[in-house]
Request: fold
Amino acid sequence: MSRVVVVGAGIAGLAAAWDLVRAGADVTLLESERRPGGVIVTERRDGFIVEGGPDGFLAAEPELPALAGELGIGDRVVAQRARGSSLWTGTALEVLEEGRAAALLGIEARGADLAAGFRSFAGGMAEPVAALAERLVNNLRFTQGVTGIAPARAGWRVALTGGSAHEADGVVLALPAYAAGRLLEQVGVAGARTLAEVVYAPSVTVSLAYRAEQIGRPLDGTGFVVGPDLVGARHAVPLHIRACTYASSKFPGRAPDGHVLLRAFLAPAEGDPAALAHGELAAILGIGGAPLWSRAFHWTRGLPRYPAHHAAHVAAVRERLTRLAPLAIAGAGYDGAGVSACVRSGREAARLVASRLGVS
Ligand SMILES: Cc1cc2nc3c(=O)[nH]c(=O)nc-3n(C[C@H](O)[C@H](O)[C@H](O)COP(=O)(O)OP(=O)(O)OC[C@H]3O[C@@H](n4cnc5c(N)ncnc54)[C@H](O)[C@@H]3O)c2cc1C
Reply:
């Protein structure tokens, strides 16, 4: 039986491991943290569903519904309830035309795809993660940080923190590009350094819970984007929040009846992000009183920003990998940062390694 090590249990690594197990490989999925999902984090609190990372995926993309169907949770996919977003001009919220909010936030997606809206899961984006982790319970190893890979007799030797190692016939690296790039540099893959240099932008998200009557203005649409000239040092009194999602309007079941859940996106800044977010949201949305609670998530390395010629660099690295024992890269750092693209890339990496091992 071919032994495959998948490194990283974010959605890309989970999808890769799931396909490899079903292809008949002996799979070990190594994750440095104590939980699966990577940047996908859903928490429950007092009847609210709080997302720390992604809150949905483009409805036009088939990868998540297809995966959910295979996992028996296809009926948990939910559609976006509210549509449209606004721009905070500094004095008013003005309705934006379709696709403008995404463009202002630097989210790359086709207009037609944005027009089809977003979907999520009834219990939040961690639902497919939990379903995959449950199926992979015998393959998943937590707190197993990979420190190096090296060619071995049969294929690869995968070294772990603490000094132990796994031998494998094939490897999938489903890591952020900076982490995979470092491992590939050790093996002497030319161009691996360019992957290690993909910059992941820092961000902070703050979820804030309120009673509905605390909100002084109607919450129209899914949220608002702050005008770029109002954020940061370019403005006399700069705002810290870049955007706000009306989480309880956007998807069903995010807050108990009579309550509102907001999620603010902030640039990293000095000070308490929850206090900054509440202060600025209170001014914009006419909020009275303090939030019932707040929850901040700090992403020191959040979404990757691809440099010029990124696709060509990735293609060149992948071409060099074909000359080594079976080894593939997958995840947000390469072919698209959205959750759907990560699932696609994990599955493609699994297919590649499986076909080279003759187990597909
Ligand atoms: C705040 C935020 C909001 C987002 N919103 C959306 C959204 O609404 N819709 C959307 O489609 N996408 C969104 N994204 C993007 C999307 O969520 C991510 O790009 C995607 O989930 C990344 O998945 P991944 O498996 O490639 O990587 P990750 O989730 O980063 O997983 C990599 C895993 O590898 C592990 N690891 C790292 N180093 C090692 C090592 N040496 N050894 C072992 N394990 C290691 C990590 O602990 C992690 O679990 C958002 C991202 C962020 C940060």
